[in-house]
DNA sequence: AATGATGTCAACCGCCCGGTG
DNA sequence: CCACCGGGCGGTTGACATCAT
């Protein structure tokens, strides 16, 4: 295949780098015959000069039947955003709720889009810092009893005193303020979860009760997600104009419409 | 048309965890 | 109880593709 400089040099005898169609064929035939697992023995038994890890990765991310190809749909993107808000970088966990998508794919997607956001938020941060500096200069001339903390609260309205009861991802968001911009808190969503584990079990239960596509994510909502009470939360996304909404009536219902 | 910037994707690396002897 | 090993996972890298200037 393409420029393999450096790739070809075998380490511990294993081949590295891009897989050839022949290798794919060998691996597929072997797994179809013997099933997944025992990856270290797969390499030798299938006549592949690859490490077990490499075989597993190739199978899971590329050869496994039922994998979807191509760009993620707006619906899938919305789900990723939601689940990442719940679980953070638990890509494999998130992938379980996106049939046909791999954790690697989701991870790549998130990195690409989050990076984009990070960059623009860095610009914002710069501008903010400049404004703050200017403000401080003005304050020196005319002191005002308004601490920066209060300003932060206005800027980051979802971060409240109750934050310590939320899932760990919210704590992560506190450390990375730009995350707070992206996600509604669980509180805002009125999801009955207090921990990642609870979130997982709730979601599992919910998927059983309501069905993923019809219940939790109302993908066909033409109104961009106003709930019955007319509540609407807007999440600002730098790279895409994304809007969604959350039930404000205390129910579990999440009525989200993603507009890309 | 050329070139640099950015996006996408496949693959590797290193760490962690659970099973096993 | 402990060491070892294999598998799984998240982070990172590098090559190619596409877009913008």
UniProtKB/TrEMBL annotation:
<feature type="domain" description="Myb-like">
    <location>
        <begin position="64"/>
        <end position="114"/>
    </location>
</feature>
<feature type="compositionally biased region" description="Basic and acidic residues">
    <location>
        <begin position="119"/>
        <end position="128"/>
    </location>
</feature>
<dbReference type="InterPro" id="IPR044676">
    <property type="entry name" value="EOBI/EOBII-like_plant"/>
</dbReference>
<feature type="region of interest" description="Disordered">
    <location>
        <begin position="115"/>
        <end position="152"/>
    </location>
</feature>
<feature type="domain" description="HTH myb-type">
    <location>
        <begin position="64"/>
        <end position="118"/>
    </location>
</feature>
<keyword id="KW-0805">Transcription regulation</keyword>
<dbReference type="Pfam" id="PF00249">
    <property type="entry name" value="Myb_DNA-binding"/>
</dbReference>
<dbReference type="InterPro" id="IPR017930">
    <property type="entry name" value="Myb_dom"/>
</dbReference>
<keyword id="KW-0677">Repeat</keyword>
<dbReference type="GO" id="GO:0006355">
    <property type="term" value="P:regulation of DNA-templated transcription"/>
</dbReference>
<dbReference type="GO" id="GO:0005634">
    <property type="term" value="C:nucleus"/>
</dbReference>
<keyword id="KW-0804">Transcription</keyword>
<dbReference type="InterPro" id="IPR009057">
    <property type="entry name" value="Homeodomain-like_sf"/>
</dbReference>
<feature type="domain" description="Myb-like">
    <location>
        <begin position="11"/>
        <end position="63"/>
    </location>
</feature>
<dbReference type="GO" id="GO:0003700">
    <property type="term" value="F:DNA-binding transcription factor activity"/>
</dbReference>
<keyword id="KW-0539">Nucleus</keyword>
<feature type="compositionally biased region" description="Low complexity">
    <location>
        <begin position="132"/>
        <end position="143"/>
    </location>
</feature>
<protein>
    <submittedName>
        <fullName>Myb domain protein 121</fullName>
    </submittedName>
</protein>
<dbReference type="GO" id="GO:0043565">
    <property type="term" value="F:sequence-specific DNA binding"/>
</dbReference>
<dbReference type="InterPro" id="IPR001005">
    <property type="entry name" value="SANT/Myb"/>
</dbReference>
<feature type="domain" description="HTH myb-type">
    <location>
        <begin position="15"/>
        <end position="63"/>
    </location>
</feature>
<keyword id="KW-0238">DNA-binding</keyword>
């Amino acid at each position: 295949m393409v420029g393999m400089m450096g790739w070809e040099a075998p380490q511990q005898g294993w081949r590295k780098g891009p897989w050839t169609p022949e290798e794919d064929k060998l691996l597929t035939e072997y797994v179809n015959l013997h099933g997944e697992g025992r990856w270290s023995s797969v390499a030798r038994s299938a006549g592949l000069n690859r490490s077990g890890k490499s075989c597993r990765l190739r199978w899971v991310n590329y050869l496994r039947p039922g994998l979807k190809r191509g760009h993620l749909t707006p619906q899938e993107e919305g789900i990723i955003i939601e689940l990442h808000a719940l679980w953070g970088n638990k890509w494999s966990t998130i992938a379980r709720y996106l049939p046909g998508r791999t954790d690697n794919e989701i991870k790549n997607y998130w990195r690409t889009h989050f990076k984009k956001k990070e960059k623009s938020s860095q610009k914002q941060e710069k501008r903010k810092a400049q404004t703050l500096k200017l403000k401080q200069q003005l304050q020196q001339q005319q002191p005002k009893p308004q601490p920066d903390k209060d300003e932060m609260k206005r800027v980051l309205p979802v971060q409240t005193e109750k934050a310590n009861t939320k899932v760990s991802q919210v704590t992560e968001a506190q450390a990375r303020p730009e995350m707070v911009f992206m996600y509604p808190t669980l509180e805002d969503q009125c999801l009955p979860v207090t921990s990642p584990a609870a979130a997982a079990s709730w979601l599992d239960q919910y998927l059983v009760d309501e069905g993923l596509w019809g219940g939790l994510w109302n993908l066909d909502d033409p109104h961009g997600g106003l709930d019955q009470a007319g509540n609407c939360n807007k999440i600002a996304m730098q790279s895409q104009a994304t809007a969604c909404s959350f039930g404000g009536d205390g129910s579990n219902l999440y009525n989200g419409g993603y507009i890309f």
